[in-house]
């Protein structure tokens, strides 16, 4: 995970520590802070009448098949209570495997966890998530924030949407909204190791070393094989020991 160096006011540190570290039940009440793009999904106008045989005008050309994967609708999903419970049980097993520092099975567990997290259960919401992800990959943080605001507005229980928008806000230089979205992410999924690592990096940037160490340690307790978090924690612990000495 790449962390950009941004000028951040230090007054946010108390807010970050109080809101996020050790968070358990924080209602995600941030979706209305940013106006939703309108319209956020542009439907393709359908032809309602067939061309008349005696019409002097040629029939309009039919649109070519879309090849952009973002324009392909996601598979419909209607998760039942049993399906949700089964997914939670699967996650519990995967997190147990993820926490094993030895071997290579953790890599497969990490991939499976991220895949499960990326599924909202709604084809329309999955499409918004993919559009936001693609905009981030293209470096268009403004477009990403637009798509992901629509996503968090319509799917406030989807932790991955909050986390991805937190990343988009951060890359756009919006420190406060990014912290708020990380808080919402961890309220919905306290084991979100990527959100904890992101938080650690943001706190480290502002010089809140003790809080950053706490966030990195919590992230590594869940996923001990994150090399970036391991390196950052080792660096900060060495700096702290040097200061204490």
Automatic annotation (TrEMBL):
It comes from the Bacteria. The keyword Metal-binding does not apply. InterPro entries: TPR-like_helical_dom_sf, TPR_rpt. Pfam families: TPR_16. Residues 37-79 are annotated as: Disordered. PROSITE patterns: TPR. TPR repeats lie at residues 193-226. Keywords: TPR repeat. SMART domains: TPR (SM00028). Gene3D superfamilies: Tetratricopeptide repeat domain. This is TPR repeat-containing protein. It comes from Paracoccus halophilus. The lineage of its organism: Bacteria, Pseudomonadati, Pseudomonadota, Alphaproteobacteria, Rhodobacterales.
């Amino acid at each position: 995970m790449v962390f950009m160096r941004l000028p951040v006011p230090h007054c946010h540190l108390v807010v970050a520590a109080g809101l996020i570290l050790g968070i358990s039940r924080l209602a995600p009440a941030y979706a209305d802070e940013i106006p939703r793009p309108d319209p956020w999904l542009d439907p393709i106008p359908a032809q309602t009448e067939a061309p008349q045989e005696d019409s002097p005008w040629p029939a309009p050309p039919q649109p070519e098949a879309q090849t952009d994967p973002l324009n392909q609708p996601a598979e419909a999903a209607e998760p039942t209570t049993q399906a949700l419970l089964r997914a939670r049980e699967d996650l519990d097993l995967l997190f147990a495997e993820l926490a094993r520092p030895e071997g290579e099975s953790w890599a497969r567990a990490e991939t499976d966890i991220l895949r499960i997290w990326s599924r909202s259960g709604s084809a329309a919401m999955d499409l918004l998530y993919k559009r936001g992800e693609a905009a981030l990959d293209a470096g268009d943080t403004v477009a990403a924030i637009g798509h992901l605001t629509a996503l968090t507005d319509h799917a406030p229980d989807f932790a991955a949407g909050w986390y991805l928008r937190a990343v988009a806000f951060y890359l756009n230089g919006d420190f406060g909204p990014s912290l708020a979205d990380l808080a919402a992410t961890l309220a919905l999924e306290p084991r979100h190791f990527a959100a904890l690592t992101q938080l650690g990096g943001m706190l480290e940037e502002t010089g809140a070393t003790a809080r950053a160490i706490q966030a990195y340690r919590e992230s590594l307790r869940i996923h001990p094989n994150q090399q970036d978090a391991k390196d950052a924690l080792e660096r900060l612990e060495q700096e702290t020991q040097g200061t204490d000495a």
